Structures are given as structure tokens and as C-alpha cells.
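Quick one before lunch.
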Amino acid sequence: MMTGAIPIFLMPTRNNFGIIGPIPKSEFAWESIQKKIAANPFITDKTAKPRVLTITQSTYDGILYNVEDIKEELDGKIDTLHFDEAWLPHAAFHDFYGDYHAIGADRPRCKESMIFATQSTHKLLAGLSQASQILVQDAENQKLDRDIFNEAYLMHTSTSPQYSIIASCDVAAAMMEEPGGTALVEESIAEALDFRRAMRKVDEEWGVDWWFKVWGPDDLSEEGIEERDAWMLKPGERWHGFNNLADGFNMLDPIKATIITPGLDVDGDFANEFGIPAAIVTKYLAEHGVIVEKCGLYSFFIMFTIGITKGRWNTLVTALQQFKDDYDKNQPLWKVLPEFVQKNPRYERVGLRDLCTQIHSVYKQNDVARLTTEMYLSDMVPAMRPADAFAKMAHREIERVAVDNLEGRITAVLLTPYPPGIPLLIPGERFNTTICSYLKFVREFNAAFPGFETDTHGLVKDSEGRYYVDCVR
Ligand SMILES: Cc1ncc(COP(=O)(O)O)c(C=O)c1O
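Model of the pyridoxal-5'-phosphate complex:
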């Protein structure tokens, strides 16, 4: 964005649980990309070759793309195919992941396009925080210009190297050497599967009574780590809720476990009887020593990184059983969420089930699952180049606009609702009606349920509780 790049976007699917799905294979078709280039008002040379395609591989919830299919479609059409593998550095060390990651031993080169993979060694391997790495695979007819690469790299990094971070990359690499690395990845997958089986067993024991579900394929074998085929996202299967899937194009990484709480089905319909918003479960878990990675409306996410053993995930299963017990007894919050109540005394005498019901009814009334899905899939209209809009902010040529007056205005900042923590608008795009309705919902919800605020990066709150976004003047 800072270099003046003009982005066009490939549109992902999203199910009504709020899980961002894969970008359909048809979006990668060169004709489809060309149409987007033709429609973008800021691209003057419609024949210019795109510089880079950046794909999040895997998505936050663990959805992976078949990289060989993407290479086949776009080799030579785009200079560089960049796979953001922040959450996937483990994949190269186990055959389970096959072609569903970017660079590995014996993987064929493109003829013309360079392949880049950026990986957060600190997220799934043993690197210290900030220990990220860039992998590059030359094409048959194209080599990395190391001097230019170095120039660009040095522009964006500190001049003071942190040797402990660099050393931690070496440690991570040594840990992953054959055969130890493969065994460690295999263990993570095995633990993740055992956790999924344990959750299903508890579900069976409860019979018709409610329990949490782990998002994933319906059929799981009795033991072992399963074949890759079991984790493919197949067209028409209801568990994932995504449309427009192509055969063999996507799989789910089993080590990413999204836990679904009761109250919302995959079509976006809220249950009439009861609902348990995930934000309450994750607060409860935090007070029981379990910190979750990400929290959605009725889902939250945990990861089986190397070193997560049965002892650890058992703590989670036990805490969830304890939650169920406290929920069913409608225990007062002072008893079950003492730290939270200390900060938010207004909830002291509220029962756990009553609070869930209150928040569930507000979500239901506002049809929030569909609202957020529609908002993410709505047409984003670029009104300025992102670099120009961002420069307006840098030069303070902006105006702080109240949420009620945002429709039609151009944002100078990134707007990122959390969950799911994915930018909704980038600088230079215009606010539409759906996005404005969502922001009004956020304002009302935050006022009604302090302590459970929906965080939206880019939204500025003043001391009177009014919300604004910095827009181009
Ligand atoms: C998809 C994705 N890419 C990149 C990053 C940033 O990675 P790093 O912390 O290695 O800079 C994140 C961080 O969470 C991420 O989720």
C-alpha cells in the first residue's frame, strides 16, 4: 500500500458461523482477475502484469489451498505468487500436507513466477516472538535479485539485530530436522484428533442435552491421524457451510480447532430456545487458565501447536464441562467469573445462563450473523488509491466523522472488526449502508454490555461514548 500499489481483491466465501472460507477456485481464473483489473478505475494500463498475488495460507481457521492448482493457473501471469503462511510453517515437515503449502522438498518450480512464503516461526514452531522467515523459490526462468531484495528488506527492518531471535530460528530449524520434525508434527495432528474424539465422546454421553461441537468433517476414524482425504472441503457437505467449492482445492488443517457454541446454525439462524455467545465462554475459560486464540460470535479457536499434550487439552475439556455445569445451574457471576465481576460489578448478581440469554437475544434481534456476513461480502467501492488516502491521514487532511454520518464517506484508515480480525475497508474505500448498520450495532451493543465490547480497529471512541472514523476531508 505504501508503494502506491493498487489492490484488487479475490472474494472469499464466509459461512454464517463467521468463519472465513476459501476463495473459490473460479476467483483465481485469469479471466476473472482481468475483469477486476478492467473494472478498477485507478489502473490506467489494463495490460500491465500484476506484480504480486498474496494469499492467506492457511486462513485463521485452518483452511488451505492446493498450491499446485494456483501455480498452474497463474504461472507467468503474475510476477510473484506470495503465500502468507504465518500459521503454516509446520506443513513442510509432514507428507500429510502434500501440495497444500507453498514450498517444500521436491516441489516443482514455476516456469516464470517466483514463489514466496512468509512464515511466523514463532506461531507454530519454536521461534521467539518476531522470528518470522521468508522462503523464496526461484522460477525456472527467473531468479531472485538478492541485492534488490536486501535493499527492500533493510528499508523495513531495524538496524539493530536481535541475536536471540535469530538464534531461536536456528533452534526451530534444528528441532524440525528429520526425523524429529516429522514426528513432532505427527504428534500435534494426533493430539488434535484425540481432542476432537474426546469432545464427541462427551457429546454422546450427554445425549440430547447440549454440548460444544468442534468444527470439522462429520466422519472421524476411531484412531490414528486419518488420511488427508478426510480433511478435504468437499462441495455440498453441510458441516463447513461454504458454497462454490472445487474438488480437491481446499482442506482443513486438523491442528486448528474451532469450537462451536450452541445458539447459531451454519445457515445463520439463531436458536429460539437458548444460545451461548462465545465471548462469555472465553471469559470463563480465561478465569480457568485457558486463553483462546480467537473468539467469534458462537465460535472460538484453539491450536494444537507442538508440545500441546493430552494433559493440556484435558484441562480445556474439564473447564468446558465445568462451564456447562455452571450454566445449567445459572450460577451467579460473582461466583464463576470473580475477576470479571471485580472490574464490572454491574454483573455481580446476574446468572451465567441469564447473561448468555440476554446477549443471545440482542444478537438474534439484530440478525448479527447475517449482517456481518453480508457486510464482508458487500461490494467495496474504491474511491481513491490506498496510498493517497493514507497520505491524507499522514498529512492530517482528515475529518473525524461520527458513525451516523459515515455513509458515502471515504476512510483514511483500515477498518478491522474483531472478530474476525480481518480488514473490512482499506484506506480509500467508501462506507456503504451495511457497514454503517454494523457500526451502529457495535455502538448499541457496547453501551448495553460493557466488558463484552466488540473491538473494531479504526473506530475511535470519545469520552462520551460516541464513535467516529477518520475519513478523507
Ligand atoms: C495471516 C497473518 N499474516 C501475517 C501475520 C503477521 O505475522 P508476524 O507476527 O510473523 O509478523 C499474522 C499475525 O497474526 C497473520 O495472522
